[in-house]
Specification:
With 369 residues, the chain is mostly helical. It has 10 helices and 4 strands; from the N terminus they run αααβαααβββαααα.
């Protein structure tokens, strides 16, 4: 009877450990949250299939395709005489086409990559059996943060703030585009611009902040698991104690990082082009263009060969009187102030030679000789 009771206890312990292990490996990075539930109710995905390609095409059509059609109807899609047309706007391509599409495609890649890493911690097993419960509680806490409604509401608020900042930059830029039409001193937002303000820009910023928040949750989960008792092997062939597989998880974020980089890169490019245009405008308004060029810069006046100063005579002459030239002869190098008038100058030894001549080493050599 005692042996049967002991066997029963061991079986219960094994079942409990197996349940905790399954809870650790059940972390799905792209599931959960109000936005996921909204897509599931609309039939855009299923619980067992994310359908990332279909959703990426749909969101790109809403964020980039609809403003293109509205701009095409208004005649602002291909060319605009006094501004930037839709198809030549790098910001629309980078944010609404590339970034949003990659954000949706990266969900499936991230989930598969991260889920395999946690499962390997259990299958190895890298986590000590007595720490299974603590690891499972860490995963449960991470899932709670992943599904947090407050977090996605904050992401939505940040998306609205980013959209308002983007709209204010368009209206105060002073240049017409597919989104804003400048008439006199007033800026009128076009129909395509309003669609971008209501749908495209908030969707881009929301997916960006939502992805960043879920990455922070994953990093916090790894930090909590690292504080547990792990069964590391010092002689493991990977040279990392058996944890080399965790160094591969950034590959799961390659699409997401590329989408973030495209959004930030277009911001940098816009600032560079605006700085060049302002500098060109100031150079064209100055006489001969030499005033706007820095004489100390090796790339001065690089904008146009017509702005290069051909000689010093291109500068405007100063009205200040010139200082009369002195007739006194210049003193030669190493001149002696006490030299005779018959000798124009007398060469003196450089200080380095004088120091070498009076050095203690040379004095010792003289004493031995």
């Amino acid at each position: 009877m005692t042996e049967l009771a002991a066997d029963g206890n061991i079986a219960e312990i094994d079942d409990a450990d197996g349940e905790e292990a399954s809870r650790i490996g059940d972390y799905l990075a792209s599931h959960g949250g109000p936005f996921f539930e909204l897509q599931r109710r609309l039939g855009m995905l299923r619980e067992d299939a994310l359908l990332a390609g279909r959703r990426a095409a749909l969101f790109v059509a809403l964020a980039w395709g609809v403003p293109f059609l509205l701009s095409l109807v208004a005649g602002r899609a291909f060319s605009l005489p006094d501004g930037r047309a839709y198809l030549v706007d790098f910001g629309a391509w980078a944010r609404f086409f590339i970034a949003i599409g990659l954000f949706m495609l990266s969900e499936q890649q991230i989930e598969y990559g991260l889920n395999g890493k946690l499962g390997h911690l259990v299958r190895a097993p890298m986590i000590a059996p007595e720490c299974f419960e603590a690891a499972a509680s860490a995963v449960v806490r991470a899932l709670r943060l992943r599904d947090s409604r407050a977090a996605e509401i904050i992401c939505l608020g940040l998306a609205i703030v980013g959209t308002l900042a983007w709209l204010s930059r368009l209206t105060i830029s002073g240049h017409s585009s597919w989104a804003v039409q400048i008439a006199g001193d007033r800026a009128h937002v076009t129909l395509a611009g309003w669609w971008s303000v209501i749908c495209s820009a908030p969707l881009f910023y929301f997916l960006l902040f939502r992805g960043l928040w879920r990455y922070i949750v994953w990093a916090m989960l790894l930090w909590r698991i690292a504080s547990l008792k792990l069964r590391l092997v010092a002689t493991h062939p990977d040279g990392k104690g058996g944890l080399a597989f965790l160094a591969e998880y950034p590959n799961a974020y390659s699409m997401f990082v590329f989408g973030v980089s495209s959004g930030f890169a277009i911001t940098v490019v816009r600032h560079v082009f605006e700085a060049i245009s302002r500098r060109s405008h100031s150079a064209s308004s100055s006489p001969r263009g030499w005033r706007s060029c820095s004489r100390s810069s090796p790339f001065r006046c690089w904008r146009s060969p017509n702005l290069w100063p051909s000689s010093r005579t291109d500068r405007p002459k100063s009205s200040a009187p010139r200082r009369p030239a002195t007739t006194a002869p210049r003193s030669a190098p190493w001149s002696d102030a006490t030299s005779s008038p018959t000798i124009p100058w007398k060469r003196r030894r450089p200080p380095s030679l004088i120091r070498r001549r009076n050095s203690p080493l040379r004095a010792n050599c003289r004493s031995f000789s």
